[in-house]
């Protein structure tokens, strides 16, 4: 039951004196990659001119301090150090990417509320204490395990308590979309109150709907597959094949084709393979297993 979902334990103790620091392009590997081998590191990409950044950073610092060593916070001024943000596809700020064991594993964009930051830290560093947040995390885990009925039951329970809960509505819409039920996904999104229509949780769903509609025009993929097998440097065919595979739910293969395209020619179509990967990640969501896998492979390619 939802009301029986309880958090357990607390954040591990740590040296709070070194939890928060600024980094540069030169020190990024040490401050982020190396440190993330010991605990999750939240990287806050910001700029002095960014108003929402000024709202978000103090909240980030507060939550990280309260986590008492469970995570660290590293801040990067993209005006002074733009290359890392560019390589990771950061297109708007504020943006927070979590690194763990040397790889990006989670994150968000925009000046999100304190509760969402705590939920993020709970995912990467330990259990959460709020029952509703814990239930939503459980639903996401069930989806990854293939238990769609269990996830739908949790979302329904959440919506009984909070009919306008955007996370639950977005989760239900994504389940419908993943099942190929585009119209059903649209109907779920119509339940979102107008005041919450711009919620970041809905961005990926709308992006996924757009991808699904675009991919519908590709038709049979057999010809594209043969062309790529015959000529591995047929970049446009490989790109189109990746779009089609993603639409058919073969996300791992889609990611692999775009990674291979980018490895063969990083400048093709103005770095089109990387840009398409980033659109996939936005559409699938930061916690989707294929997004996590794809970000790891892209990060390994970019930082090799």
Automatic annotation (TrEMBL):
It comes from the Bacteria. Keywords: Disulfide bond, Electron transport, Redox-active center, Transport. The keyword Acyltransferase does not apply. InterPro entries: Thioredoxin, Thioredoxin-like_sf, Thioredoxin_CS, Thioredoxin_domain, TPR-like_helical_dom_sf. Residues 1-126 form the Thioredoxin domain. Pfam families: Thioredoxin, TPR_19, TPR_20. Belongs to the thioredoxin family. This is Thioredoxin. It comes from Methylobacterium oryzae. The lineage of its organism: Bacteria, Pseudomonadati, Pseudomonadota, Alphaproteobacteria, Hyphomicrobiales.
